[in-house]
Amino acid sequence: MDVYESAFDLIGATPLVRPRTGSPAAVYAKLEYLSIGGSAKDRIGLRMIEQAEQDGLLRPGGTVVEATSGNTGIGLALVAAEKEYRSVLVASDRASDEKVATLRAFGAEGRFPVAVDTLIIGS
Could you tell me the domains of the chain? Predict the structure, then answer.
């Protein structure tokens, strides 16, 4: 069994499967659902936070703030938790209970859910 030092070692290391299709074409399936946060958006969360660090926009003890419907917020929350940043996320009332539970499990704070009408500026 492989043992990893960090959750970051798992981001982007999703397995490929070559299903038997009976076709002469080589078909591969990338199993992003096996990523630690459950989607390809983990890569985006890691990249956004690393870029903010490089640009000096996010420093130790900082806070990540995002309006999210789920997967990007989950990616940001898991990276923020691993790097010991606070994450404040706002999810609309259209976000599934499972996504909201996952955001909370990764330590995200915020309003879950917010009525979509309250997110529209000027209404």
Answer: 7-119 (3.40.50.1100)
Catalytic positions: 41
At a CB cut-off of 8 Å and minimum separation 6, what does 119 contact?
67, 90, 92
Cα 114 to Cα 95, 98, 122: the distances in Å are: 9, 15, 16
Sign of the CA dihedral running 39, 105, 44, 12: negative
Contact 91, 73 (CB under 8 A): yes
Buried-exposed string 54-91: b where 16+ CB fall within 10 A, e elsewhere: eeeebeeebebebebebbbbbbbbbbbbbbebebebbb
23-54 pLDDT per residue, tens: 899 999 999 888 888 888 999 999 999 999 99
H helix intervals, 1-123:
41-54, 71-82, 97-105
Strand 109-114 and strand 86-92: the pairing is: parallel
d(CA 101, CA 90): 13
CA–centroid distance for 116 within its chain: 21
The pTM score is: 0.79
